[in-house]
Write a structure and sequence with these properties.
The chain is α/β, with parallel strands linked by helices. It is built from twelve helices and 14 strands. The longest helix has 30 residues, at 122-151. The protein binds 5-S-methyl-1-O-phosphono-5-thio-D-ribulose (MRU). 5-S-methyl-1-O-phosphono-5-thio-D-ribulose binds at residues 50, 53-56, 100, 165, 167, 171-172, 176-177, 204, 242-245, 255-256, 321.
Length: 362
Amino acid sequence: MKNEVTPTLRWNGSAKDGHLKMIDQTRLPIELREMECRTVEDVWEAIKSLRVRGAPAIGVAAAYGVVVGLQSLPECTDRTHFDVRLSQVCESLASSRPTAVNLFWALERMRRVAAGASDLSSSALHERLLAEAQQIEQEDRAMCAAIGRHGAALLADGQGVLTHCNAGGLATAGDGTALSVIFAATAEGKKLQVYADETRPLLQGARLTTWELMQRGIPVTLICDSMAGWVMKEGRVDAVITGADRIAANGDVANKIGTYSVALLAKAHNIPFYVAAPSSTFDLSLISGAEIPIEQRPSDEITAGFGRQTAPTNVNTYNPAFDVTPAEYVTAIVTERGLIRPVNRETVTRMLTPTTARQGVP
Ligand code: MRU
């Protein structure tokens, strides 16, 4: 099983000369291969190209990216130079992808550690930053497990569950968010039938979610995104559960493009629509989902996905990678602290305060 044998990402060695190792998710499901990131450019490229992806995993990768990025400094660098380089590295990593707030949350944690350790030498601070990155990874694992525990009761034996994109172990340092709920319910002995949307254009559902569920022996049926409504109409789906990339203070949820359509379909068929996400995915500095930056990706992901041209040369395209589901369509949000239900500004604030969520990062 992937998560017992090959972790999604891990650190090897010391702060000074270690490196980040991660599954190259662009090769799945054909090939399970790990890659090494030894420079901040490697980490930036891995995030940008979705070799590592999913909001929590992006945050963990970025934290380790800071450690890698500081390795180019000479041994006896003074703190001023160290701090300048730290800023450059954080700014570079922050430019990789805009939507998943976990990236900015993790970078801010790293910056705060440095700001609070003015007495440490550069090399001692470098080790301290590695410890912080490892702490972020461990916390993420624990948050996944807690999300599974809190969410399992939402799913009943014999139910059909639809998910979109991949919010599993590949998207986190642990067992995932949405899939953690499915794993936990299954561990309680419930038999579930999962429907995985293929998730155009990059096929995270087809390539990654089905792969993870099959590794675990959980029945999964792959459907095209356009089939979700009909599958619901046929009565095959009792619940929908997805992850999130950023949740605004009012409970609006940004997640993989197509999630909004699924939420509307669930509403039309009177099916509960659940979101599973750790507190690190909440952005209380944003009043509503309208303020969430939506990543735009290259047109060839639509016109020539996976190397085969499927549309006329030079056709106009529009390729937003995420959409925003208004809170009113979300039945409940499963966090590591418990369930937010109903989802609105008051219930989000109550669950997240005092909070480790991001507050006011520009
Ligand atoms: O573009 P991706 O693959 O990084 O998008 C991932 C998602 O939308 C996930 O659903 C989200 O990050 C939650 S992962 C626990």
